Amino acid sequence: MEFLVRTENLLPPDTPDDVRESLRKGERERALQLREAGILKRLWRVPGRNATIGLYEAADPAELHDALASLPMWKWMDITVEALATHPQEKTP
């Protein structure tokens, strides 16, 4: 299944810089692991916000949840998920 995942980072503004940088580094590393596993397909920044839009692929919503919960900033993220279905125009004859 494919999922469109919107995340916004709500890390408190008073978070120390060293903690913030450590979390960012961990996010990058985990995102690379999810890419290598074929779960994270695409990732876009949202200009002007501390937010992303990602295209994920997982066997089911539970697998997606586990992948998202594995992100270091998980507990500071506002996340919305939309399951995607193939449009008939996308199917090849």
Automatic annotation (TrEMBL):
This is Muconolactone Delta-isomerase. It comes from the Bacteria. InterPro entries: Dimeric_a/b-barrel (IPR011008), MLI_dom (IPR026029), Muconolactone_d_Isoase (IPR003464). Homodecamer. Residues 1-89 form the Muconolactone isomerase domain. Residues 1-24 are annotated as: Disordered. It catalyses: (S)-muconolactone = (4,5-dihydro-5-oxofuran-2-yl)-acetate. It comes from Streptomyces vastus. Gene3D superfamilies: Dimeric alpha+beta barrel (3.30.70.1060). Keywords: Aromatic hydrocarbons catabolism, Isomerase. Belongs to the muconolactone Delta-isomerase family. Its EC number is 5.3.3.4. Pathway: Aromatic compound metabolism; beta-ketoadipate pathway; 5-oxo-4,5-dihydro-2-furylacetate from catechol: step 3/3.
